[in-house]
Each structure stands twice: as C-alpha cells, then as structure tokens.
Amino acid sequence: MTDPSLPADPRVAVVTGAGSGIGRAVARLMLSEGYRVALAGRREAQLLETADGHPDALAVPCDVTVPDDVARLFEQVRQRWGRVDVLFNNAGIFGPAGDVGDLDIAEWEATLRVNVTGSMLCAAEAVRTMKAQEPQGGRIINNGSISAHSPRPRSVAYTVTKHAMTGLTKSIELDGRDFGITCGQIDIGNTRTEIMDTIGVGSGALQADGSRKVEPMFPVDDAARAVLMMANMPPSASVGSVVVTAAGMPFIGRG
C-alpha cells in the first residue's frame, strides 16, 4: 500500500560532495534505486563522471561555502523536479594536521567554512524547500565522522567541526518536527576513500600512544548502503544516529 505522505513521483535527493568518495557512491546508489539526484561539488568534470549520463542525474557545480552557489543549487533542483525529499550533507575536508598549538588560523577557518558553515547553508536551503513543498517535509542526513565521538591525534580542526555537525543535526531534528522534516547523522570510520590516504590509514595512521598502525578499511559501497537505509525510512520514523566502521578498526577502546 502506498504511503500517502510520500510524493507520488520518484523521490528527489541532493548529494553534496558528489564528485568523489562517499558522495559519489551514495549518488550512484540512489540513482540505481530510482531516485532523481542532484550532484553538487566544486568540479564539474567529476560530477559528470559520477552521473555517467544517467537521465535522472543533475550535475550542479557548487561551492558550499558560497551562499549564492547553494541557493542556485536548490533553485535548479526545484525548477527541474519541484521538490527536495532528501539532502545528504556530505561535502567536507579533513583540514590541517596539528594540535591546537600548531594551527594556522587560515586553515582552521577554511575547515570550519566547509564542514560547518557549508553544511548549515545546504541544510537551510533544504529546510526552506521542504517547508514550502507539498506534501510538506523531507529528510536531511548529515555526514559526521567517528571523530564526532573520539578524535584522532592532531586532528583538532576536523574533530571540532564534526562535533559541531552533531549539534547541527540535533537542532535541525528539533526545529523540523512541526514540518515533517527529520534529520540524522551517519558517523563513518575507515571506509576506503581518498581521505584515508591523507591520514595514512593504509600505510600507518598515528595512534594516541604515538605509534603508527595500519588500520582496516571497508568498501565505500557498504557505507552508501547505510546512507540509503536512512534515506528510505518512512516519514513516520527518524534514524537519529548511525555509526558504521571497518570491523576491527581502533575506535572502541581508542586511547
């Protein structure tokens, strides 16, 4: 039986950071599952590679730190499909390596702009769209990190932004209740993407005791399936938090 609170047409998703990594895997999986998907990212060539000519993909070059870019992204989605059902708020950077005494202020601020302000701008546009559409409502999924629970050494900028993402998630979930808007956060540890090379997971990641350890990783397609599970929940249910890690990675008991 069809849920009358769901749109009759295929559901519409916006995926930021869709040019690579988790964003690319999620966008492609959603397209294969019948979603119409807007692919957002800074590099058009990578977005088109993700889309791979799919008729229900819309590639929109967008810098999430620029309010006009984000507004244009959502306006293009509304013009093409009339609504937004899901936002996967995924765009992010790891930022500088260093403790709080080592930080360059420009690098700190750049990390906050992408990971926090960019996520807020996209969520704000999504919320405004979801409030105005019929049927009203939708779902926002924020990509956090296990660093929202426990930091890696010398990752203060990234860790702070991911703790901030948890506050953003809870605030959206609370403020969206009267409008049928839900918000959840997925915290992923060691899926096999380019950022893992940045922190040396495959060659030896820095541990809390100063040693380096090669850590296990898991396929990015498995992370994408977890995001799809959250997206596919009915409007009557909200998945507030999901943690998915590589089996055996040093997360539980980190320290």
UniProtKB/TrEMBL annotation:
Keywords: Oxidoreductase. CDD domains: SDR_c. Pfam families: adh_short (PF00106). InterPro entries: NAD(P)-bd_dom_sf (IPR036291), SDR_fam (IPR002347). It comes from the Bacteria. GO terms for molecular function: oxidoreductase activity. The keyword Oxidoreductase applies. The keyword Membrane does not apply. Belongs to the short-chain dehydrogenases/reductases (SDR) family. This is SDR family oxidoreductase.
